[in-house]
Amino acid sequence: MSSQTGGGVPHDSPAARRRQDEPPGRGATSRPGGPDAPGAELLPTPVTRAGQEGLAALLARPDEALIGLDFDGTLAPIVADPERARAHPGALPALAALAPKVAAVAVITGRPAEVAVRNGGFAGAPGLERLVVLGHYGAERWDARSGKVTAPDPHPGVDAVRAELPVLLEGTGTWVEDKGRAVAVHTRRAPDPQGAFETLREPLTALAIRHGLVVEPGRMVLELRPPGIDKGVALAGFAREIGAGSVLYGGDDLGDLPAYAAVDTLRADGTPGLLVCSGSDEVTELRKRADLVVDGPEGVVGLLRALADFIG
Predict the structure, then answer these.
(1) Which of 107, 126, 193, 312 is the most buried (most CB within 10 A)?
(2) How far is CA 247 from CA 74, 305, 311, in A?
C-alpha cells in the first residue's frame, strides 16, 4: 500500500505519525495548493494506520470507492421528533460534489427508504443520479435512477408487536415511531429519558422475542425489527455488488456498529476502509472504534466537501 494519498498527502511522514497520538479529528491536512487555495477544505487525518490506508486508497482510486453513510445523526441532526429530522443544509451540495467522483454513495438507514429520501431531499437532486438508499437496514432499496423502492414482504411479528405496544407503554411518556417494517420506541421525550430506556429494555426484548423479532438499542430509542438484517449486511452486500476497491462508512449510533464490523472484515480480506464517527456524547462505542471522529453532521458535511475538493 502506497503511503501517499491520491492528492499527494503523505501518511507516514513525521507529522502524520505525530497525529496518531492526537485525539480523533484534530490532525488535518489541506488540499494541494495550500490551505489558502480557493475553496480549500481541511481533510482530517485518521488516527489509526488502517484508517490512513483506507483514506489513501480512497483518494488514489476514487472511482472504486464506496461512500456509505447513516442518515439520522450523521447526515441529519438528531431532533426530539424524528418526523422533523431533515438533512443538514450542506449535505446535499456536499454529496452532489462528491458522488460523481466515486463508485457509489449509499445512505444506509433504519428508516423506511422513502422517508429517508424525503427527509434528505434526495429525489431528483442534481449530481445524485446514482445514489442508493438502503432503508430498514437494507431490507428496502431505493435507486435514484428509477425512483422506485424494492422490498420483500414485511415480517408478521411487526404487526403483532405494534398491537401490544400501547398497553405496555402506557404512562411511560415514550413515543412510538411506526417504520412499517419495524417499530421504534423513543424515550427522549419521557420525564427521565435514560431511566425509561433502561426500564423498558427488558420487557421490550421479551416482547420482540415472543414474536420472532430482535431489539436494536440506539440513542434514546429501542427498535423492534426482524432478525438477520443490519447495516453491516447491507454495506457488505452492496460493496460486493459494485466491486468496491475501498469503503468509507460514517455513522453515529449503536446500530452502526455492524457496519463498522463489516468494514473490519473487508479490511481483513484486503479492501481498505475508513471508519468515521459523527461525534456524540450519548454514544461512546463508535468513538472508540472509529479511525476518524468529526463534529456531528456539520463535521460529516465538511469531510465530504474536503474529499470532493481533494479528488478534484
Answers:
(1) 107
(2) 16, 17, 15
Distance, in Å, from the CA atom of 9 to the CA atom of 56, rounded to the nearest integer, reads: 8
Could you read off the pLDDT of 188-246 as tens digits, one per residue? 989 999 999 999 999 999 999 999 999 989 889 999 999 888 999 999 999 999 999 99
52 closest CA partner among 22, 26, 99, 17 = 17
Query: Is the entire prediction scored with pTM above 0.85?
Result: no
Asked if 208 contacts 222 with a C-beta cutoff of 8 angstroms, the reply is no
CA dihedral angle for residue 138, residue 121, residue 73, residue 293, rounded to 10 degrees = 90
Instruction: Report DSSP letters for 218-269, one per residue.
Output: ETTEEEEE-TT--HHHHHHHHHHHHT-SEEEEEE-SGGGHHHHHHHHHHHHT
C-alpha span between 250 and 122 (Å, rounded)? 18
CB 75 within 8 A of CB 119: no
- Give the Cα separation of 208 and 185 in Å (integer): 12
Kind of pairing between the strands at 28-30 and 42-44: antiparallel
What burial class does residue 119 get, using C-beta atoms within 10 Å of its C-beta: 0-12 exposed, 13-18 middle, 19+ buried?
Answer: buried
Q: Which three cell numbers stand for residue 5?
A: 494519498
The H or E element spanning position 178 is: strand 175-178
CA R_g for the chain: 20
Distance of alpha carbon 296 from alpha carbon 122, whole angstroms:
20
